[in-house]
Write a structure and sequence with these properties.
Number of helices: 14
Structural class: mainly alpha
Largest sheet: none
Shape: globular
Strand content: under 5%
Radius of gyration: 19 Å
Helix content: 40-55%
Number of domains: 1
CATH class: Mainly Alpha
CATH architecture: Alpha Horseshoe
CATH topology: Serine Threonine Protein Phosphatase 5, Tetratricopeptide repeat
Length: 262
């Protein structure tokens, strides 16, 4: 009985926090991708990829169709909870709250990625929190080379910085030769420090702003890699528009703070 009640609470939570148009049908390709996921794992790479492609709404349609699939429902719920916790970790890093970071960070969250593919270590590097970078890399060395949706590891973002973070990461095992999706390694960016290395922007815009960029923004507010390619938008130039999530430096998935790192 307790197990049933818990499942019903999870379903109620998901229904309350998701809305779709009643006439939308399930995309069979998305359905296959979702149902092929190993729901027993504590990693969310396939879901992260789907959301990064702007397919969060279509994923929810699949979940709604399969509410009787207990493993799927619990996996989606766990992903949402992990994203909430991830945002709290980002907030701790941004506010330089080392104590809070140590309390919140664990094996699951250190490898979790936001809609841009950024991990806690990525954020620590982007915020230039050297002590936090060293702590995370020492505590969780197996996850030091995780790439974001641009194929960039933490070393890529540390490379142009005028501090010792790049050297620290290299010393702690970061692979500086991994190429990003432009084919460039962190080592190459280090040798050309004037070239900007930026993550994807996290966007949430209103209808008026949509008109300004001709509907180049995906449905859930993320400018996906595919949209960037289709519309010839540069990933490393000053030319694209940036909108602050919710207008107040807050996450589009929850109320916890997060930022665009540009």
């Amino acid at each position: 009985m307790q197990k049933t009640n818990n499942l019903q609470k999870i379903i109620s939570y998901l229904l309350f926090n998701n809305s779709t148009d009643g006439d939308e049908s399930v995309d069979e390709n998305i359905e296959r991708r979702v149902l092929s996921i190993d729901f027993n794992q504590k990693q969310y790479r396939q879901l992260e990829q789907l959301y990064s492609e702007g397919l969060g709404g279509k994923v929810w349609l699949v979940v709604k169709k399969h509410l009787g699939n207990e493993k799927l429902v619990k996996y989606i719920y766990a992903y949402r909870q992990a994203q909430n916790r991830l945002s709290q970790v980002f907030g701790a890093i941004e506010s330089n709250d080392f104590r809070k970071l140590k309390v919140l960070l664990d094996e699951e969250i250190v490898q979790a990625r936001d809609l841009r593919g950024l991990t806690p270590l990525h954020i620590a590097v982007l915020e230039e929190r050297h002590e936090m970078v060293e702590f995370i890399a020492n505590q969780f060395p197996a996850h030091i080379n995780i790439s974001d949706h641009l194929g960039r590891t933490v070393a890529h973002y540390a490379a142009p910085q005028q501090n010792a973070i790049y050297d620290t990461l290299s010393h702690l095992g970061a692979d500086i030769k991994i190429p990003d999706k432009n084919g460039f390694s962190a080592e190459r960016y280090r040798a050309n420090p004037k070239q900007m290395v930026r993550p994807l922007p996290l966007l949430n815009i209103n209808e008026k702003e949509k008109k300004l960029i001709n509907n180049k923004i995906s449905k859930n507010g993320l400018l996906s890699l595919q949209n960037m390619r289709n519309n010839n938008i540069s990933m490393d130039e000053d030319g694209y528009s940036i909108f602050d999530p919710v207008g107040q430096n807050s996450c589009t998935l929850c109320s916890s703070p997060t930022k665009c790192y540009l």
